[in-house]
Design a protein that fits this description.
single chain, alpha/beta, Rossmann fold, Dihydrodipicolinate Reductase, domain 2, 2 domains, nine-stranded mixed sheet, 12 helices, globular, binds nicotinamide-adenine-dinucleotide, Gfo/Idh/MocA-like_OxRdtase_N, GFO_IDH_MocA-like_dom, nucleotide binding
Length: 377
């Protein structure tokens, strides 16, 4: 197997998501970490990159230097991960796609729907991969749920309920904490706080499991901590293209909830429940039967769930491995091999359209609005 060359922008020393990408990309030997512009501070970024084994001439001080350096490099990177703060994603992703690189962008892919449409068009025209790191969709048991829905094991789907609600920004006196403040500041976060930060993960997961896309929504946004401009709590009712009823609750003030990502799917003949804090089990209730627990690693799982189970039954399987699963399929795509599901630029665009629709709806007392990007109507 030929190793692919991989580079990262952002994800510097002390960043939250950087380590997960480094572990994820390199876990299976698919990618060699050969280039990076890892930090907003050029010197910090260069020295940290070299401490991770990147050669000095490919430890770049900023992403523009990396673009120039890699464009002409005889052994240029096959994939660039963009793990910088949200407002920079569009500019960096666009530049690397235009230069013919494959990109894995962190969520939210862009700050506006128009930017999202430009990325989708660009990736299509360039014939390059633009993936978005909706990594929770790569948990084996989420793949099992998707396969069970597709196989008709729940009958026709009536309703999906998705939550991404935690209590980590509940403290009012934490409002000036720099890691918290930007998330509720329109100048830095854009039109939405928690919906754009975490709600889109849960919404993507609902679409992913159902094999169905968001059509319309009605949102109620609240900023419950005094002084916050953007929402820290949102309830979103939605309908899918196939007419399934959807409910999404996303919050940062839900004390008592920790990570708080969970999803339930209710069909005519069965229901499923999964939570990221117990990622190895699905609760399955067949109509007229008892609740069964389906365990990761057990015999008889659907193909993608079995393929992506990395550790024996009843052993914990971590979040970085969900990220690693994204890289497994990226590597296969780049090599032109058969690959599994990969969240793409279309998903990034749909999320941004959902955020804008939710903002619009919330401003108009929960009016039902079309939540599809214009290019997909
Ligand atoms: P962070 O603030 O902890 O780290 C950001 C890093 O990017 C820092 O090292 C910073 O120096 C660097 N950086 C900033 N501007 C840069 C630039 N112009 N060029 C190069 N490097 C730059 O942020 P984080 O929590 O790691 O989040 C980064 C991104 O990852 C965000 O978009 C966030 O939404 C996303 N994220 C996704 C998940 C997920 O589950 N998929 C989880 C956490 C964060």
């Amino acid at each position: 197997m030929t190793r692919l060359n991989w580079g990262m922008i952002g994800g510097g020393d002390g960043s939250q998501i950087g380590p997960a990408h480094r572990m994820g990309a390199q876990a299976d030997g698919n990618f060699s970490f050969v280039a990076g512009a890892l930090d907003a501070d050029a010197d910090r970024g260069k020295s940290y990159a070299q401490s991770l084994g990147i050669a000095p001439d490919r430890a770049y001080g900023n992403w523009r230097d990396m673009l120039e350096g890699e464009r002409e490099h005889p052994d240029r990177v096959d994939l660039v991960t963009v793990a910088t703060p949200n407002s920079t994603h569009f500019e960096i992703t666009r530049a690397f796609l235009e230069a013919g690189f494959n990109v894995l962008c962190e969520k939210p892919m862009t700050m506006t729907v128009e930017e999202g449409e430009e990325i989708v068009r660009l990736a299509r025209e360039a014939g390059r991969i633009c993936a978005v790191n909706y990594c929770y969709s790569a948990y084996p048991m989420v793949r099992q749920m998707k396969a069970m829905v597709a196989a008709g094991e729940l009958g026709a789907i009536r309703c999906v309920v998705a939550n991404f609600s935690h209590g980590h920004h509940a403290a009012g006196d934490d409002a000036d904490n720099p890691r918290v403040r930007w998330r509720y500041d329109p100048a830095q976060a854009g039109v939405s706080g928690q919906m754009a930060d975490c709600g889109i993960h849960a919404l993507h997961m609902a679409s992913f499991i159902l094999g169905d896309e968001l059509r319309s929504l009605s949102a109620d946004f609240a900023s419950t901590v005094p002084g916050r401009v953007l929402e820290d709590d949102a309830m979103v009712n939605f309908r899918t293209e196939k007419g399934t009823v959807g409910r999404l609750w996303t919050s940062t003030i839900a004390l008592g909830r920790q990570h708080g990502l969970d999803i339930q799917v209710f069909g005519e003949t069965g229901g499923l429940r999964w939570a990221s804090e117990q990622p190895n089990q699905i609760h399955y209730h067949r109509l007229g039967g008892r609740v069964e627990i389906i365990e990761k690693g057990e015999a008889g799982l659907h193909g993608d769930a079995a393929r992506l189970s990395r550790v024996p039954i009843a052993h914990p399987e971590g979040f970085p491995l969900a990220v690693a699963n994204i890289y497994v399929d990226l590597a296969a795509r780049i090599r032109g091999e058969v690959a599994g599901a990969l969240p793409g630029a279309e998903d990034g665009l749909r999320s941004m359209a959902a955020v804008y629709a939710a903002v619009d709806s919330a401003r108009r007392d929960g009016a039902w609005v079309d939540a599809r990007p214009p290019m997909f109507r």
